[in-house]
Amino acid sequence: MGDKKYSFSSVSSLFPDRLMAVIKFGITGFSGLIIDFALTWLFKDELHLNKFVANAIGFSAAVISNYLINRNWTFKGNKAKAGPQFTAFVTVSVIGLLLNSGIIYLLDNVLLLNFYLSKAAAIFIVFFWNFSANYFFVFRSSANKPLS
Fold this sequence. Notes:
The chain has 5 helices and no strands. It has helices at about 10, 15-45, 50-75, 80-110, 115-140.
């Protein structure tokens, strides 16, 4: 029998482009989540910074990483100029950070849930904002225009 090799691109051809973008965005986001949580933990628990400052540091490092991965992998067909595109990505991410912090505040300070459980819930909820805004605005191409 032949040695058939499978790559991510051969698997990706089985899914519609929009679904593949969601999957890649999720994988990229997971790498950002690791960066975000690791730095948040470092600055909050080890260096004893305010939890919202620590959250902003972790989030910001993840934003930079996620932009680079999304530009070069998730939405690699988009050839927009990097400067304006990064500015748009950061704008979407800052809105995401505000949503993220608001959700954490509500869950952690008002409902008294565990900080990290609150952070995980916020990340899950804000994922949908981030994907939609990036797909339809930041990395918009003719292939991902909103459906009419």
